[in-house]
Amino acid sequence: MSDYLVKSTAANGMFRAYAVDATNLVNEAHRIHDTWSAATAALGRSLVGTLLLSTSGLQGQGRLTAKIQGNGPVEYIVCDGDAAGNVRGYVKNPHVNLPLNAKGKIDVKGAVGTEGVLSITKFTPGDKTPYTGEVNLVSGELGEDFTYYLAQSEQIPSAMGLSVFVNPDETVEVAGGFLVQALPGASDEALTKLEAAIKDLPLVSDLLREGKTPEDILKLIFKDDELKVHETLPVQFKCDCSKERFTNAMATLKPADLQEMIDKDNGAEAVCQFCGKRYQFSAAELRGMIKYQQMNKD
Fold it and tell me: Are residues 56 and 122 in the same domain?
């Protein structure tokens, strides 16, 4: 089944709630970056968290970048997401595999670390200066860290659950998550009820492995409360890199650096960190960049 995200409201409009099955896109990220289990789970949770933030908090052509930088062996993770359900990401050290934690699960906390920062940068078309919010990591498990970000930087009472199940052959069996946010008017009774429901909720990965859908997960959270599904959105790992973008970036290099590429390698190769795609630049193309800079300088 294709990956998709569900947007809904619940409990007579006191909450907005999202749930997503992101199995294929996380498996695609694993394939592209050749991640090992702990890195796969950390990158996968980051991709799902970014997807939930971007589809809930952005509109139109807006984008956001999430960066998790901890003191664990993966070092850092970077993910981009947009309102349309597209997400991409990479991890600095993809080859991280750790012993299972005390609960017999992949040690994401050990991979990410417990000291560091989570930063979210939002890019809105028309705004010259992007907005960045930053919080310290509170657990390294990532779901709690994204939740803390929403509470501290955006002042939104929220709960986020992220989960990835990695098979013995390193492939991703399931991946997904949920995000619930309180809307103005949410009663203390409703908040208490929601907190208890989320506390009792099995791992999202366990539910997906049982065949549960994003809709089923939301129904388990809200139980007998009214749930209204407003939109079902396909989601995917998608990179928008292009040779044109790399050309624009390389054209900002110093002429001496471009000339060095010509002298040493008779050209250059640029590799996208997000998707691994390679772009070749001939010596003639590099000379053209140098000539363009000189013309503009004059």
Answer: yes
Cβ atoms within 10 Å of 65's Cβ, excluding its own: 18
| 158 shares its domain with 265 | no
- State pTM to two decimals: 0.94
**Higher per-residue confidence, 298 vs 32:** 32
Boundary residue ending a domain (190, 210, 237): 237
**Cβ(62)–Cβ(125) under 8 Å?**
yes
Count of structural domains within the chain: 2
For residue 87, how many other CB atoms are within 10 A of its CB?
Answer: 32
Q: Is the pLDDT of residue 1 over 90?
A: no
For the purposes of burial, counting CB atoms within 10 Å of the CB of 209, is it exposed (0-12), middle (13-18) or buried (19 or more)?
Answer: middle
**What are the tens digits of pLDDT across the range 128-137?**
788 899 999 9
